[in-house]
Design brief:
Layout (H helix, E strand, L loop, with lengths): L3 H7 L4 H30 L2 H4 L5 H20 L4 H17 L3 H22 L4 H76 L5 H28 L7 E3 L1 H12 L8 E6 L7 E3 L1 H19 L4 E10 L2 E8 L6 H4 L19 H11 L3 E7 L3 E9 L4 H6 L1
Parallel strand pairs: 2-4
Antiparallel strand pairs: 1-3, 4-5, 5-7, 6-7
Helix pairs in contact: 2-4, 2-6, 2-7, 5-7, 6-7, 7-8, 9-10, 10-12
């Protein structure tokens, strides 16, 4: 990003332009309300902008801001605050999804509306008229350049973010392949050990020896089950909507989460509604959501003797899942950003910042909601609400 000084230089705005703009301000103030009315008509011409003015409160804020913006052009206070405000406009337009071509059209409206007014009002003073028109054109071009650069900076950042996310997904796919290969290499020796244990246990041997072989066999079976769970989680699965037992999905994700290093210090309390009906869902994707939340909760608890509570219930035509921990909690400042991609409060190397962003996308895909309530030192509560039945169009859009 540049600076206001650079843009003033690029637009060739001098002190004489500042003087000319300020001389025109009384005229602009006289027509400001009429211009805002015309601007409102311009908003109605486009489907993308009509959506923002359906709410009367939003419309009033938008028109008040437009009047302020118009007059600020003729205040001609070209400082860092002016520059930051113009950058914010471009960033906001990108965030809400308005195409920058609409904004270029709005500048055309500014130019076409006031240029004839200046010609008429300063007709008796051609020198001042030309100075005001030239200054007006320069400041509009400068404003447009600042806003569009800010817009495209956000666009570039989003593109880089998408590239990083693709690379991360490729890494996950590679890990999945490695897990599958590792499982094969581990599986054969484990099968041999289990076979030896079974063979020895079929023989008449001393109880102490039998107890040792039984213990070995039990641990081998446990390892086999763990590897199998990792394979199932890492294996790419087609996005197929099926009737899903949400309690079973949660329990499966918990089994994997319990493999985490700090899981042993966390007491897990389950309060399941066992009468819940099956829901339409993408089972593997929901499993990923729950695993992300469980691992985050275990990280938040740390080495202390923490508690992770998971409850399921029914609320009209929806299933509600609540995941609560008594960990460190999230500050108000960070709480508003937790679903942003690549935002993380964890130390470098301990998190990608994608877990909650991906989880939000998955829940959105299921036409559900995910909410977070947290306070520092008291823990965090995630509430997930999922419809029991998906509409056909939601499955198609997925």
């Amino acid at each position: 990003m540049g600076s206001i000084k650079e843009f003033l230089r690029y637009a060739d705005i001098a002190d004489t332009d500042v003087t000319a703009l300020r001389a025109a301000k009384p005229v602009v103030e006289r027509y400001a309300d009429a211009f805002v009315e015309r601007f409102y008509g311009y908003l109605l011409e486009f489907e993308g902008t009509r959506a923002f003015i359906s709410n009367p409160a939003v419309l009033k804020r938008l028109l008040d801001a437009q009047r302020w913006y118009l007059l600020s052009l003729f205040d001609a206070k070209f400082d860092s605050a002016y520059y930051d405000q113009r950058c914010l406009i471009g960033q906001t337009h990108f965030r809400v999804g308005l195409d920058f071509k609409w904004y270029v059209g709005a500048y055309g409206l500014y130019l076409n509306y006031f240029s004839p007014i200046f010609d008429a009002h300063f007709a008796d003073d051609p020198t001042q008229r030309r100075a005001i028109q030239a200054a007006y054109q320069r400041v509009l071009l400068m404003d447009m350049a600042i806003v569009l650069e800010s817009f495209h900076q956000r666009d570039k950042a989003a593109l880089e973010m998408s590239k990083d996310q693709v690379l991360h997904q490729e890494k996950l796919a590679t890990v999945g392949l490695l897990v599958s290969g590792l499982a094969h290499e581990i599986g054969n020796p484990l099968a041999s050990i289990q076979a030896i244990c079974d063979s020895q246990l079929r023989k008449p041997i001393e109880p102490v020896i039998a107890e040792r072989f039984t213990r070995i066999r039990t641990q081998v079976v446990r390892i086999v089950n763990i590897v199998g769970q990792l394979i199932n989680f890492a294996r790419p699965a087609p996005a197929v909507w099926t009737p899903v037992d949400i309690n079973a999905v949660i329990e499966s994700a918990l089994e994997i989460a319990r493999l985490a290093r700090n899981a042993k210090s966390v007491e897990v309390k389950l309060q399941f509604d066992r009468t819940l009906p099956l829901i339409d869902a993408l089972s593997e994707q929901l499993s990923q959501v729950f695993l992300n939340l469980f691992l985050n909760a275990m990280d938040a608890v740390g080495e202390q003797c923490g508690i992770l509570e998971v409850t399921t219930s029914r609320q009209n035509s929806h299933v509600v899942v609540k995941i609560q921990d008594n960990g460190c909690g999230i500050s108000d400042e960070n709480l508003s950003r937790i679903f942003e991609p690549f935002f993380s409060t964890k130390d470098v190397g301990k998190g990608t910042g994608l877990g909650l962003h991906v989880s939000l996308s998955i829940i959105d895909r299921h036409c559900g909601r995910i909410q977070c309530d947290s306070s520092v030192g008291r823990g965090t509560l995630f509430t997930i609400t999922l419809p029991m039945t998906q509409k056909p169009e939601s499955k198609e859009s997925a």
